[in-house]
Specification:
This protein has about 300 residues and is an alpha/beta fold. It contains 13 helices and 9 strands. Strands 1, 2, 3, 4, 5, 6, 7, 8 and 9 form a 9-stranded mixed beta sheet that branches. The termini are far apart. About 40% of the residues are buried.
Length: about 300
């Protein structure tokens, strides 16, 4: 079997059916689906029940956050590759076929990322997302250093690599656990990439990145993420002199998130930290975006 599509879900009974239909509408059938219900309190089980078969399996776990849910799906997977697909998004019909064709043509790479676009749930408006890099060492070093331009949906990882490199199961890292994994893998393996767009991330008000506005949680998430990266000597060696720039960028992203949500004093503190970490902070658009929120 080529692909195991792991769908972690929590209280998405009203959204997951559309996702499942898009997955099962693939032109290539060389895949399985593993739904990991992360302790939902809604009717998720009842909604997915009609879709269950030998190829579509459902497993319920005690609520443990997405990292643990994805890891449980990885353990159950039988495919050569893993694709962790979110339960509120949409897979285009050629997604699996394109992934399979690319992997076969490129000697089964460890990691492959394709492209995705954002799709507004209400208006249907589609917004492109830039998430590629050029296949040379200099550009590879800078790939993802600006921020997490990837998502789980357009990334597949060979199963043996996925089992050796699980998601970190820490609630404080929630919404950054995928970024941590991509950076950990990037320090070890080349990311093969394709320009093909094969999925939509559906933009709606319930997305976790839109609902996380508590300043203490935002701060803890970013600081936990940076703590893990600071402990990863292989990653720090991989970035070399760019490590300070990477930390600065994360301070800026935290600052703009805090400022956007009205936490101006805390945002200003991280704006200063960003400048202290790397003087090029003042050349970053996100620096001035944060400053704009602070003075308005």
């Amino acid at each position: 079997m080529f692909l195991s599509i792991v769908i972690p879900t929590y209280n998405r009974a009203h959204l997951i059916e559309h996702t499942l239909q898009s997955v099962l509408n693939q032109t290539c059938s060389d895949f399985e689906v593993i739904i990991i219900d992360d302790g939902s309190k809604d009717a998720t089980r009842e909604v997915v029940e009609p879709y269950l078969s030998e190829r579509v399996r459902y497993h319920r776990i005690e609520n443990s956050e997405r990292g643990a849910a994805r890891n449980r799906g990885t353990e159950l997977a039988r495919g050569e590759y893993l694709n962790w697909f979110d339960s509120d998004d949409e897979m285009l019909p050629h997604h699996v076929q394109h992934l399979k064709d690319h992997c076969e043509a490129n000697k089964h790479p460890e990691v492959l990322n394709v492209q995705y676009q954002m799709k507004d749930a209400l208006s249907g408006k589609i917004t492109p997302v830039q998430s590629t890099y050029k296949p040379n060492q200099k550009q590879r070093t800078h790939f993802l250093i600006e921020g997490n331009y990837l998502a789980c949906n357009p990334v597949i990882v060979r199963r043996d690599i996925a089992l050796e490199n699980p998601f970190i199961e820490n609630r404080a890292l929630s919404a950054s656990e995928d970024y941590e994994l991509w950076l950990r893998l990037l320090a070890k393996y080349p990311f093969h990439q394709s320009e093909e767009i094969t999925s939509y991330l559906i933009q709606h008000d319930e997305r976790s990145v839109n609902t996380m506005t508590d300043p203490s949680k935002l701060e803890k998430r970013f600081l936990t993420f940076l703590s893990y990266m600071d402990q990863n000597e292989q990653f720090k060696t991989f970035l070399g002199a760019n490590y300070g720039y990477f930390v600065m960028r994360n301070y800026l992203v935290l600052a703009v998130d805090l400022a956007f949500n009205g936490h101006k004093k805390l945002a200003f503190n991280y704006l200063k930290k960003a400048f202290g970490e790397h003087r090029s902070a003042v050349k970053q658009r996100v620096f001035w975006a944060t400053f704009k929120h602070l003075v308005l």
